[in-house]
Amino acid sequence: MPYDPAYEITTKALHPDPLAYQPGLARAVMLPDEIPPGVQLVTLPGGQRALAYVQPPAHTLPPEPAVAQPVPAWAKTTALLAPTVGFGIAAGGIGLSYAAPGLIAMSHALWAAGALVAAAVIGVPALISGARRRVAAPTQITQNITANGLFGRANGTINYH
């Protein structure tokens, strides 16, 4: 097996007997059931045992070409609805652009109506209270009329209080 520089071989010592305890080992010990998938214990040309990633053999056949599958019904429906939704949104935008002057005028009219209501709420009580002040203190007029005889001339005075 030729050495491939794209894959670096790293060594990690395995304990010869995983169940035996040996104090003073300087290297890490890995049990056989701890070896991750895709990694195997290999013997290097120098006789040293090491862990290495397993590469698939070079003579594997290329994968078969994918077979064309029919388009699902939901994809067809979505593809047909997409232009319809787009045209609907476009038509709504055009409608709003035509309606914009009327909407602006309507908003101005609503602001004017709101101002009229606010003026009425403030102004009507002010007018009513002003009118009550004038009616509460009317001017008093006193007349004194005197006449002598049946066909005599009448004299009178008018007093404003």
N-C termini distance = 134 Å
- Radius of gyration, in angstroms, nearest whole number: 54 Å
The spatial strand order of the largest sheet comes to 1-2
3D shape: rod-shaped
Residue share in β-strands: 5-15%
Binned, the helix content reads 25-40%
How many helices in DSSP terms?
A: 1
Oligomer: single chain
DSSP strand count: 4
Rounded mean pLDDT is: 79
Structural class label: alpha+beta
Largest sheet at a glance?
2 strands, antiparallel
> What is the N-to-C succession of helices and strands?
EEHEE
Question: Low-confidence runs (pLDDT<50, min 5 residues)?
Answer: none
Write the layout of secondary structure elements.
Layout: E1 39-43, E2 49-53, H1 73-136, E3 141-147, E4 154-160
Antiparallel strand pairs: 1-2, 3-4
Tell me about this structure.
The strands form 2 sheets. Strands 1-2 form a two-stranded antiparallel sheet. A two-stranded antiparallel sheet has the order 3-4. It has 161 residues and is of the alpha+beta class. Strand 3 and strand 4 (154-160) form a beta hairpin. The chain has one helix spanning 73-136, and strands at residues 39-43, 49-53, 141-147, 154-160. The mean pLDDT is 79.
List keywords for this structure.
4 strands, rod-shaped, two-stranded antiparallel sheet, 161 residues, 40% helix, alpha+beta
Short description:
The chain is α+β, with helices and mostly antiparallel strands. The protein has one helix at residues 73-136; strands spanning 39-43, 49-53, 141-147, 154-160.
